[in-house]
Every structure is written in C-alpha cells, then in structure tokens.
Amino acid sequence: MVRIRLIPKDIKFFDLFEAAGETLSTAAVRLQDLIATFDRLPERIAEIQAIEKQSDELDLKINARLEEAFVAPFDREDIHDLTVQLDDVVDSIQAVAESFVIFDIKEPTVEARLLADILALQGVELSAALRKLEPMKDLSSHLERIHELEHQADAISRAAVARLFHDRGDPLEVIKWRDLYNGLENAIDAAEDAAEAIERMVHKRV
Known about the structure:
Shape: globular
Largest sheet: none
Radius of gyration: 19 Å
Number of strands: 0
Mean pLDDT: 91
C-alpha cells in the first residue's frame, strides 16, 4: 500500500547556511594570511581555490534543498539571493588571490593589508550572524558591524587609489594596483550585500 505524505516536508537550511558562513570566513582569513606574509603564493592560492569549490558545493546543496522543500523557513527568492551573495564573496576572494600572481606583484601595500583585514573581520561577523539565523536573536550587532567595516574600507580604498595617481609611478603598476583595490572592494561590498540579504530575510519574519 502506497502511503501519501499529508504533512508538508519542512527541510532545514540553517546547517548549510552556517557551513557557508564558515567557508566564507575561512577564505577571507586565508587571503588575509596570503597578503600579510606574502610567501608560498601558489600553495596559498591553491588552498583558497579549494575553499571556493567547497562554497560552490554548498551553493548546489542549498539549491537542491530548495527544490525539495515544500515549506521553506524563508522566501525562496531570499534564500537563493543569500546563497548567491555568499558565494560571490568567496569568488571575489579567489579572484583577488589569483591576481597577485597574474599581476606579478612583488610586495603588497599597506592599504591592501588593511582591506584584507577588514574583509576577514566581515567574514567573522557574517559567520556569526548566520549561526544566529535560526533563533533570529542578536543578529543586528553583527550586521551593523559589517556595514561599518564597509564604510571604513571605502575610505581606505579611495585614499589608496588617490595615492597611486598622486605618486605618478609606473603606469602599469598603477593599473595593477587599481584593479587589485577594486577587487578587494568588490569582495567587501559583496559581504555587505550578503548582510543586507540577511536583513531582508529577518525583516520579513519579524
């Protein structure tokens, strides 16, 4: 006799959100370490590339659960949006790491280290917020901190680019570093976008 499920299947997503946050935070710390020490670049980049693959796998798992779920804890579009935003951060981190080799950078700047530090701090806050997504308690401080860090990064990035043109160094080096600063800024902006995606999800549940 075939049994028909009458109760909707409520599939949990929170474990995968937490895993995605931890993966993102780990990638950000690996980039921070790469820029701080600036040694063994191929090995460090390979580690970040492996983490990026883990992020892609989590993206696929979340989307698979979304297809299976009759009832989801948040709007499906919001779940998908958050998943995309988290993966975008890791993709941007990988792109920046690879650019140091592609551009044949000899030594990182102070501003690059500062931006990487900010990104790593954002990763910590995002991971903490995602761990609190299920109970939906005490998230606001983490999300506010991510916004504050993004504002700090804006000021550092603008000053760094201005210094590039003010110093009037090798035009090729100016182009390389402008692109690298933009890459770091893109990753930091993506982290803020992820925080905003979480805020939208929470506001709809309150």
